[in-house]
């Protein structure tokens, strides 16, 4: 049985990467060790780290003043590290409240005595649309504006044309980094958990504009709380998660071989458009997001009946379509179409949904 | 060629665990997913997490008021989390400065405005012996006493009879947890990076006495800074490092099958005593630590000439004895004999060192 994993993350790895991991997990012929056993203080691992950093700088087309860090504790830890490191001047930030993972950083920053303004929110309509900055927004009143490029749970995205022009922009790109194009230089801080588009759970990417970091007063922070420690110590102030960084590097190589962001974007557009097109023409299923805000990586939809949706998702998993149930706060279905999701998965899912539709409509 | 990895960490995994990982890395027959791809919100992962917690409570013989957490950021992050969470009453702690990894937490706590007293230090003699609390030490003046049970770099250990009786004791057990017996109830907080005795780099174990944590004022902390968040959310407030916890659980099962701490302690004593016995009788090599403070997990020794030591370590790696060079702050050699290190590794190392000795003495 062919099976597909539509999980919002941790998600599938590219088949080529899985094959390579399986081959290399046994002892390496030169080092006589498995990648699981090598020290971070070896030329082998230092190469992996250097390659991963260089690939990211190149794929994201970032200049030398952007510094790449590999951190721990997921995006959730970044909800705290970002204000600690980058809201030291005005101690006031603005967050575009576009979904669950845009809302959480509000409480995190406030717990750290940073004032949070919410210049735009769609919370009252359950985040079915994206909020935007008001025309009269004064960015000089804030250390930075925080936004989530792709809302994993709600299936909405600030695509490149919707990214606001402000002095300092922080982006949580956990669910669409390297899946679609942005002018990454518009952001002064980017972070992303690896477990959606970059590899396995256990490593978080953060990239900061060093010039901006240099303006901050970090004297009140302990070493592990500071971005500067990770930059100065090449992400090895503590023992880094060697295997997770190794997998990340393999995924980056696979992205390069897939034509970089441009190549994957073309494929991701095809995948998402096929599915949205089907949903828009279906008389049984409906996409829950309309218009240009639709996410390419997380497609949410429903048959309009919560109980029936749950039954269908359950039955689909028996047919090999795993993890289609939507997040509990939204319900319905969510098909996550990250970079590693093959186009065939979408074709097969549409065929399956057509059958479901027929069954119910004939009932 | 048979090869051995004597690295101080990341270190070797038990052969049985490596085999099991290799077998299970390909797609599981029931879930049709690799362990690298499963979500943390699955019954499969929840079982792994529950098993790991139960094994630890049982192996360490800890009562129900001790809570097990799986955290990120290594022991180094604990140098900061411990004072943040557990030095909230007097904001004053005492650290037994027994080595490099006992010294680092001093600066970390001070950066967080916690006063640090050092009631005992052997820094001036390069940590060749262990410091102890003075007889008149008044533990009521401190939130807690912090000690490192095993000093990985310097090769010294507070064995169970040397653990002081104080009101609240915090132990960094990164390099000898589950390798020798302690009355673990004497500690109110234990932490350990996994990459020496517990698995791969990327996960840190912390165990806290909930009764003591309940006495703290944690209102100033953000969610990821609080132990209570990890306890309340079962270490899944953020997406946990699924694979690292999976490997940790396999290692714990292997420890149970190896007779638990008692079984491994017997083996670890045999390994270490063989090597120390050889060094004590050698006219060429000398152990750098004497007496009852000797570590079972990290044996440091020297031929008395730094340059020659480096040459010998280099040559040994060509013969399959990897990572024998001592830490740069100590020099000489360090043979790390963690739980997964087979007794044969020690036998073969001694035979090799005897040959080296003969070669040099015949020169």
From TrEMBL, chains A, B:
Cofactor binding note: Binds 1 pyridoxal phosphate per subunit.
UniProt key word ATP-binding: no
Residues holding L-glutamate: 41
Enzyme class: transferase
Highest taxon, organism lineage: Bacteria
UniProt pathway: Amino-acid biosynthesis; L-serine biosynthesis; L-serine from 3-phospho-D-glycerate: step 2/3
Function: Catalyzes the reversible conversion of 3-phosphohydroxypyruvate to phosphoserine and of 3-hydroxy-2-oxo-4-phosphonooxybutanoate to phosphohydroxythreonine.
Keyword Amino-acid biosynthesis (UniProt): yes
Catalytic activity: 4-(phosphooxy)-L-threonine + 2-oxoglutarate = (R)-3-hydroxy-2-oxo-4-phosphooxybutanoate + L-glutamate; O-phospho-L-serine + 2-oxoglutarate = 3-phosphooxypyruvate + L-glutamate
Upper taxonomic lineage: Bacteria, Bacillati, Bacillota, Bacilli, Lactobacillales
Assigned GO CC terms: cytoplasm
Similarity comment text for this entry: Belongs to the class-V pyridoxal-phosphate-dependent aminotransferase family. SerC subfamily.
One Pfam family in the UniProt entry: Aminotran_5
Record EC number: 2.6.1.52
Subunit annotation: Homodimer.
Annotated positions of the N6-(pyridoxal phosphate)lysine modification: 196
GO biological process: L-serine biosynthetic process
Record keywords, A-Z: Amino-acid biosynthesis, Aminotransferase, Cytoplasm, Pyridoxal phosphate, Serine biosynthesis, Transferase
Localization, UniProt: Cytoplasm
Stored InterPro entries: Aminotrans_V_dom, Aminotrans_V_PyrdxlP_BS, Pser_aminoTfrase, PyrdxlP-dep_Trfase, PyrdxlP-dep_Trfase_major, PyrdxlP-dep_Trfase_small
NCBIfam families from the UniProt entry: PRK05355.1 (NF003764)
Alphabetical list of Gene3D superfamilies matching this protein: Aspartate Aminotransferase, domain 1 (3.90.1150.10), Type I PLP-dependent aspartate aminotransferase-like (Major domain) (3.40.640.10)
Organism this protein belongs to: Leuconostoc fallax
Domain annotation Aminotransferase class V: ranges: 3-349
Protein name per its UniProtKB record: Phosphoserine aminotransferase
GO molecular function: O-phospho-L-serine:2-oxoglutarate aminotransferase activity; pyridoxal phosphate binding
Cofactor section: pyridoxal 5'-phosphate
């Amino acid at each position: 049985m062919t099976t597909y994993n539509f999980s919002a993350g941790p998600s599938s790895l590219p088949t080529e990467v899985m094959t390579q991991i399986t081959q290399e997990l046994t002892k390496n012929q030169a080092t006589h060790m498995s990648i699981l056993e090598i020290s971070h203080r070896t030329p082998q691992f230092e190469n992996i780290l250097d390659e991963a950093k260089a690939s990211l700088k190149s794929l994201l087309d970032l200049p030398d003043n952007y510094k790449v860090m590999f951190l721990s504790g997921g995006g959730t830890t970044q909800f705290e590290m970002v204000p600690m490191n980058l809201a030291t001047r005005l101690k006031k930030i603005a967050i575009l409240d576009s979904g669950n993972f845009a809302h959480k950083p509000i409480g995190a920053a406030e717990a750290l005595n940073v004032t949070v303004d919410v210049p735009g929110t769609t919370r009252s309509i359950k985040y079915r649309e994206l909020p935007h900055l008001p025309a009269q927004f004064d960015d000089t009143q804030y250390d930075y504006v925080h936004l989530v490029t792709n809302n994993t749970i709600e299936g909405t995205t600030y695509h490149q044309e919707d990214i606001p022009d402000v002095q300092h922009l922080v982006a949580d790109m956990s669910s669409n980094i390297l899946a679609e194009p942005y002018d990454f230089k518009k952001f002064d801080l980017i972070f992303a958990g690896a477990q959606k588009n970059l590899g396995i759970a256990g490593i978080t990417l953060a990239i900061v504009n060093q010039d901006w970091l240099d303006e901050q007063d970090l004297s009140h922070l302990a070493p592990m709380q500071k971005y500067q420690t990770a930059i100065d110590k090449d992400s090895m102030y503590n023992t880094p998660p060697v295997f997770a960084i190794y997998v990340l590097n393999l995924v980056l190589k696979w992205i390069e071989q897939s034509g970089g962001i441009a190549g994957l974007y073309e494929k991701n557009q095809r995948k998402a458009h096929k599915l949205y097109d089907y949903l828009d023409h279906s008389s049984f299923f409906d996409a829950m997001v309309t218009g240009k805000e639709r996410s390419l990586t997380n497609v949410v939809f429903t048959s309009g009946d919560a109980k029936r949706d749950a039954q269908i998702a359950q039955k689909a998993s028996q047919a090999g379509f795993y993890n289609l149930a939507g997040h509990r706060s939204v319900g319905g279905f969510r098909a996550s179409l990250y970079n590693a999701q093959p186009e065939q998965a979408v074709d097969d899912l549409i065929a399956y949904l057509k059958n479901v539709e027929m069954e119910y409509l004939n009932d």
